[in-house]
From TrEMBL:
A single MF term (Gene Ontology): DNA binding
A Pfam family recorded for this sequence: OB_YrrC
Function: DNA-dependent ATPase and ATP-dependent 5'-3' DNA helicase. Has no activity on blunt DNA or DNA with 3'-overhangs, requires at least 10 bases of 5'-ssDNA for helicase activity.
Gene behind this protein: recD2
Helix-hairpin-helix DNA-binding motif class domain: residues covered: 116-135, 180-199
Catalytic activity line of the entry: ATP + H2O = ADP + phosphate + H(+)
GO CC, alphabetical: exodeoxyribonuclease V complex
Domain of life: Bacteria
Name under which the protein is recorded: ATP-dependent RecD2 DNA helicase
Record has Nucleotide-binding as a keyword: yes
PANTHER family: DNA HELICASE B (PTHR43788:SF6), DNA2/NAM7 HELICASE FAMILY MEMBER (PTHR43788)
Amino acid sequence: MERIEGMISDIVFKNEDNGYTIAHLANEKDEVVIVGCMPTLAQGETIEVEGKWVNHKLYGVQFEVNKFMPVTPSSLEGIYVYLSSGMIHGIGEKMAKRIIDKFGLETLNVIQSTPERLKEVEGIGAKKIEQIVKSYEENRDLRNIIIELSPYGITPNYCLKIYKKYKDKAIEVINKNPYKLAEEIRGIGFKIADNIASKIGIDKNSKDRVSQGILYSLNQASLSGHTYLPKDVLIENSRNLLDVSPSIIEECIMDLVYDQKLHIEKRKNEYLIYLMTYYMSENGVCKQIIKLSQAKIEDLNINIDEEIRKVEEDEEIKLANKQISAVKEAINSGVVVITGGPGTGKTTTINTIIKIFENNNKEVVLAAPTGRAAKRMSETSNKEAKTIHRLLEMGYTTDSEELLFLKNEEDPIKADVVIIDEVSMVDILLMYSLLKAIKLGTRLILVGDSDQLPSVGAGNVLGDIINSEVINKVRLNEIFRQAQESMIVVNAHRINSGQPLQLNAKGKDFFFIRKNTSEEIMSEIIGLVNERLPKFYNLDKMKDIQVLSSMRKGDLGVTNLNIELQKYLNKPEQYKVEENFSKRVFRVADKVMQIKNNYTKKWETEDGSDSGEGIYNGDIGYIYHIDKDKKNIYVLFDDTKIVSYGYDELDEIEHSFCTTIHKSQGSEFPVIVIPITWAPPMLLSRNLLYTAVTRAKKLVVLVGDVKYLEYMIKNNRTNERYSNLAYKLNKFKEEGILLNNNEGF
Ligand SMILES: Nc1ncnc2c1ncn2[C@@H]1O[C@H](COP(=O)(O)OP(=O)(O)OP(=O)(O)O)[C@@H](O)[C@H]1O
């Protein structure tokens, strides 16, 4: 490969559809013809091209371009983003600005060709110049990507991802079809790709654009919990997004179906359109759960009543009838669902089931969808419980982008019984991965509370399985005496049945403090968390009390509550290092939450005696140390695990003096404080309130306007999800397709 540099003196031809360009490139030595895909090329631009010389039959010698890069970038904004991105050691935001103010568009030429001139900028000496030049040299290709893409709002972090994926071909790939980014780079969506495309001049009606828009619409739908969209809804959503005619959309839908990216399913007179993964998962869950429930299971040859009696004796309890039915179903069925609200004895039932199987030498494995739920399951059962991801031995594909599970149909989980808790949090994709890894004959016990919020990911798996009436289920509905003492449990059940709550009983654990305005609510919450509750109940204000809010935005949303609570719970002190990231300030001792599963994130104990990997969505920790030189923030999780986050990884954590109710799913806290105030109706729902209240073990304090509390209790329109699992399960059952034809469909 050869490289030449010069200025574009003429553009002879450009194909607007595919970017194929023939141009003249001139430098001091020569003027040559260059050809290749260079859609953004403009006359007068100075570029460097890489490629080879060819001798064309008709046109003679020309340079065939493989890759091209602008030498002098065309935007100050791009140079600024690059220089201030942290990629260049020694230059921060302020210094970047000073350098650019001095040299303008010439900045990079100066750094490259006459770096000694940097001395003209205040604060730069010989040592700094050396440092700058060294890092500048080190990341040449990445630099070009940042400069090209940052004007489109792509952060240096994503540029790095793009660079890792396409290496030095990145600019070329993007110029050819920017929609590839939306398809292949996690985190870059259709909107950014579309923005680039419109600047490059790609036609609004281009099929690449419309197809990506359709996929985007379905992806958005999956983020709202839908596994499919009815065809009319998909066309409407896509039309709003793309501003093109329904006929083009329909044509592209058919192309995508042909390319197996989408699947169309007919249900009565309706067409349901799925992204392929969701279709495969929904079908897979349906088939596999029926197979597991119909599979022959080993007969334990035991007298179940006798076994239950033994456990009752050991544990000094007497199981209620429903609990006994649940135990029997678990022993006699391939699959059983055990559901019930708080205090209805789910944990006691699971523990009885575990004991009976273990007393009969059967191997039982336990898992739950989140790290915290798994931890809780371990504590209540005194037996190791893993996250489902760990149980499935999750790994990554070599490019470390795609998740994969080592446990699957070929190498299933080795166990006689698999018990999964908090199944309401399991989405359709994870359920499919789990079911694939359970071999026929293994008993599967699914435990959960179907009145909790449905999973964050798509599907309504637990609800659909329960509603389908196909899989054996037991609903525990007796609240035991001990649990009845708790107003938290009693009120949770009242919320669920739409009844008014019992508030403020003396000596009890459920309080409502009436306040009207946002300011009053805020100041009451701060007073409670910062002083009154810790003093009165002898609590640690950081660890024992969790503020939850239904929304992110607004005065009483998570973002603002975090800002306000930080001022009181962890105020600035001279000895506390802090770092300001414009929208948020991270300070030593701040309470933070990991907001995505990161299975490979390394942790280590302070003395280095233990280490491991995996920090999960919802894990709460405290900032332990900030190293400004290394640009690292260290967070302490579970009192022992120290995890380091580079400044470029801070999108993985957020302050958690207050968190969303959604993020609190699967976790429990001694005390919960919740503002009750106006919010969009979908966030004032019964199951949101129910989920929030059931997070508390010792005390619930609601602060706000009682009319919104009443509204929430009445509003049981759980946001409907397009999910076809219940229908499919019933259809399978009715038509017995599985019994005759293992492939189904
Ligand atoms: N058969 C029983 N007889 C008497 N008490 C019981 C019985 N089963 C459970 N309990 C008690 O009721 C309370 C709630 O039971 P358990 O923790 O099993 O319910 P749970 O549904 O798991 O509750 P949560 O969802 O709140 O954790 C516990 O104090 C437990 O000891």
